[in-house]
Amino acid sequence: MNPIDRYLQLETRRQFFSRGAMGLGAAALTSLLPRGLQGATGTPEELGLPGLPHFAPKAKRAIYLFMSGAPSQLDMFDYKPGMADWFDKELPESIRNGQRLTTMTSGQSRFPVAPSIYNFEKVDNGHDGAWISELLPHHKTIAGDIAIVKSVFTEAINHDPAITYICTGDQLPGKASLGSWLSYGLGSENENLPSFVVLNSTWTGRKEAQALYNRLWGSGFLPSQHQGVLMRTGKDPVLFLRNPEGVDAKMRRKMLDSLNQLNQGTFDNFGDPEIQTRIAQYEMAFRMQTSVPDLVDISGESAKTLEMYGPDVNKPGTLAYNCLQARRLAERGVRFTQIFHRGWDQHGNLPVDLPNNCRDLDQPAAALIKDLKQRGMLDDTLVIWGGEFGRTIYCQGKLTKETYGRDHHPRCFTMWMAGAGIKPGIVYGDTDEFGYNVTENPVHIHELNATILHQLGIDAEKFVYQNQGLDQRLIGVEPAKPVRDIMI
Amino acid sequence: MPAKTTFVTIILIGFCSASGLLSAAPQTTDAEVNFSRDIRPLLSNTCFKCHGPDANTREAGLRLDSQASAIEESGAIIAGDSDASELFQRLISDDPDTLMPPPESGRSLTPEQIELIRKWIDQGASWGNHWSLVPPQQTVPPPVDLPWKRNQIDAFVMHRLKENGMQPSVEADRRTLARRVALDLTGLPPSADQLAAFLDDPSPTAYERYVDQLIASLQYGEHMARHWLDVVRYGDTHGLHLDNYREHWPYRDWIINAFNQNKPYDQFSIEQLAGDLLEEPTRDQLIATGFNRSHVTTAEGGSIKEEVKVRNVVDRTSTFGTVFLGMTLGCAQCHDHKFDPISQREFYSLFAYFNSLDGDPMDGNVKDHQPSMLVGSEEELNTVKTLDAQADELKRSITTLVEQWKYNEPDDPPAVDPQPVQELWIDDTLPKSGISEGAWTPTAAGGPVQMGAVSFVHKATGNQQYFLQNVEQPWEINDQDELFAYVFLDPQDPPREIMLQWNDGTWEHRAIWGENLIEWGTKNSPARLFMGPLPELGKWVRIAVPAAEVNLATGAQVNGVALTQYDGTVHWDAVGKLSHVPPFPANRSLRDWIDESIADQGKRLPAPLQKIITQDREKWTEVELAQLRKHFIRNIYADAQTVIEPIERQSQSLVKQRDELKSKLPSTLIFRETEQPKEAFVLERGAYDQPKEKVERAVPATFPPIPEGQKNDRLALARWLFTDQHPLTARVTVNRFWQQVFGVGLVETSEDFGAQGTFPTHPDLLDYLALDFQKHGWDVKRLLKQMVMSAAYRQNSAASSEAIAEDPANQLLARGKRYRLDAEVIRDQALAVSGLLVESVGGPSVKPPQPDGLWFVVGYSGSNTVRFKKDMGADKVHRRSLYTFWKRTAPAPQMNILDAPSRETCTVRRERTNTPLQALMLMNDPQFVEAARHLAQATLDTPDANPEQRIQWMFQRCLARPARADELKTILSASVVWLQQFRENPERAKQLISIGEQPASDKYNPAELAAWTMVANLLLNMDEFLTKN
Question: The complex's ipTM?
Fold first, then answer.
């Protein structure tokens, strides 16, 4: 009998999962071996972890547009008309309430209010309407498709800990990223592509951009095959994809045929099933050499589609290009695509840098929603947009009628979600007249992550991995419930 | 519908554990249930969360981690009577309200597990402390009747096999063994000579001799160090935010040397944990303390120091726990440990040993985050010392001169010559304090510079601004001050307008040149003062405006300046003000100087003198007056300055020489304790800003206490680890080395020996080895030799499908271990068999090639590791992988793809996965292709060989064995096809053989070399090559 089948006979799958078995080894075995064998022996009966999804998922896949540096909610979505009268006036102490500040502004003698200089328009979204700034004209056309959440908050106040927190559930390095959790839990629907793909974008906003870190898409304590695969621009969209110069597909095929024979001989001698796996993985690598170039080749896209995403769509690495790629990845069953876009850290000179970054974002993001919708894919594709925290109403640095900057603000910021069972056309949560504190329906970033998992059919509190004697969860130790109010 | 299969999903069997699957099988027999092995883990996993050590989450006051509570006090368990035991009845209840564990907890027990608990209760509910907290017991190796046994390890292994009705395997053949043990002890395959000598050695001790040679080689220390680098989370960058370069490699070299010198493990550990506290520590003992400095650090703007400090100390404390205690101490950072007897208070008592670093928790983005030390030759360090001493001598002579100066107050001091004084705000660098905005890009070498080393070049489209603001010491405006800057307008790309702007609380002070397009301020006011057309292009021009004209009156405090341009390229340099009021007018008379200092309230004086000068002068003491006089003579008095200045210049030049020398010497981070220990507190929920009660240094009560009669510091803590009755140190250590040699530890969870960890597969063997290791002076080389000399280690790793079915994870060792090699070993092996490997030991980390852009796509623009630049030369790119530069936010893909950790945190156990990305890398990475080509060249260098012989030669190099007939046939037929293909496509052949550091020599036929390169590429991808067999 196949050793794996024998192994599985000994324990029911559900027990395995809920018990978390004994640390890394056994848990990994539970999740991986059954799937691992597919490559060698045939078709799988199920995807991902046994017992998952926990319930019928609304989303089969997700696309996350991550804005690194923290976009200014006050100039994009969180409209504060009353602030016009507060120009250069001190932010009332009752609002600031002794809150922790970064040491970049904690030494400032004044906290003058900097109203947004941008015009907002109340756009019909099928419900109560949504205020959207002039920086995002294309977003106005998808207001009826997205749920704008104005009351997201976090505890971290500096970039590195904050982005690590929202992407991995902890402020310190070492934990598994959202996408790697999904890959681990749900597997992929495409044998020729990774289940978690990361796309990094170029940007035109503030040049001095905050860093990204491999840990943001790393697998932490999860087995490393779940880490996000960075898709690159250029000739090798996946690292080392191309054969060496001079070697063509025919030669590579010959090499693999010979390799398979040699490895089969080793298997006959040693009996180690891992050898069968290796043979399967080399074959998969060979298939990727065709499937990945097909993926990134957009010559088959219609002119109309390309036009939707805007003029940058033909420039590899732009947000427009990456949004189109994300749709193509989603079409091919990739479980989770995360796009990173940098340059949103507007400490000063906001009116110069923010419009540039908004221009990078606006049309492509709107096009992605429309494109998914016209293909009927928005029903089962979850799209998330946001950054690691928000920005302050008070000015950092120079304040004039024309220019200002904003410091880090973890106490409230705006994100939006769309598709896959998320209510379209709503605005959820609210903040005070200064956009400083949440006044209604606060959503902690853990709850946001729980919501993402929920739409993919996962109960975040039960999605556990045993590591270092702890039940590791994406949402941390404390309970965090999904935000049911924004679900259909 | 597309086939629904998965992408990357496979993990080595050898790595997986079927925990309990093959234990002594208490589930199926009436054998006595072992509490520690069988019951405690069940209770821990299912019950402790609500009925465990953490008092805050304990339900119904019941704790099941304590015999007293579970049996005596609560009566939840009635020993010998499961029917009467509430605990058992709850496990089998039909009522969801009373059922335990509660269904909503997501935890449950299988019927077999419940049965086991019943049996345990009925057998008398014997209790015991968690196994790993009881000191190792002297165990007698069980008698073995088979000749198979070679040393005591085998007695224990054999015993477990017999219990399970299994048989060990025969010894692997010599070639397999030769490769296996060389890879395990040195991380490299045997050289051709080494292999031949071993194979030809007819002596019965040939294997032992071979092992001794390997252990004595320098490559042994490198390989051992490589494992330790994961443990200590070594990196060549700080790891957070900017992730700048950190110079720390002398510590890495210390580790290599320590293993090669076979430093006893107790000393090895004590020096790393507390070398700085040893009496008169040597240079090397200080380098060793880099252990506690290897954690990630940050200097992110806006970070709160205390928070960063707490994070650093928590990392040191947790790492200490994982490495030496095998305990997940970090769990007790926010609350009492849920599973193990470590309270939150106890965590902070351990924290208190690690919190007194004499240095800033923020790394300042510099490579030598203090405390650090220079590591140079004795001569170099002596020169530094001498220069220091000479400079000090000169400084002392100035002090003496000042002290002995006979100052006479002149009756009529001469008038001061009012020379204008230029004060620069921006020249080469920006002021250290305050914030700046915009990328202040220095001009490239050769670009225009007005003053100093560089200017700043700004390119703009539209209106673009660079500014700095909130500098700590504002610049005071004096009467008739003039504000200026130098500009050089690019004639190829001139701006349309330039503007200077100052902030004294508001920015409404602007001076403009050019088209007046920038829409800030009211036209023709001091907020938008038009100065005239653009200055001349292509040359440095000084632009200036009297301060008063932009509404900056005398006494205004300017805290920032902005440089703005509309379009174009502008070089900016030397921004400042020109003052017609000399800063120190009274440099001829002490009396006048004191008068003036009183008048301006000592604004220009250091704080202590300022304090004096602002007091009533009638009350000055003699001492205070003398201080003022000294300051005047030392810094102000013109007559004295003419004597002092030359000495000072000389001293500065010595300091400069010293700094230049120092900048060439490597440095390394070390630990230095503050003179007084810093206080430590329990932190509520681990939050830095919520200190509760103060704690003293102490080890958790569950352990034997620190012996008295010594200072209770880190050194005492380190020594405590190696006291006789310590339950964990030896076990944890022996287990980690076992894991290194056998692929999986006797305790699989080598990072966790607590209640949630796995029970040892061979508990008696673990105790035996632990005590033996202790008894023999913590001798690491001896321990490793003991392991590789055992029959258990030397077994053949082939297995029938029945044997695999019986023990898929090979926990009981009925056969040799077989698993994929680590990332470093795979790369080093390829370099070694191809003859490329450069075997020099130690030195700065190196950057072998990696695909473009991997750092750039993630890096902070201002980081000094944002751009990867490949090193040149074989001595850099063909070094062993442990010397590869480790950027922690983006480690080398050759390491990362093959499961090397990021080294952001302590890792004592790597995973082993099997993915298509690995296949792509091993087939296509230029470094591996280059290795293949060199292996091909080497075989072609053998004259007069036929293709079969060439294949055999290569095969033997790679796998230490000749190819079998079928293998030979497969390879030969492929080589013929490739040769044909490359002959038809000579261009392709040339492309393939030119990959790598140096192009192939002309002496090879390109098509032939290319075909053989493909053969080598094939061999370097064989499962057997990537695997330890």
Answer: 0.78
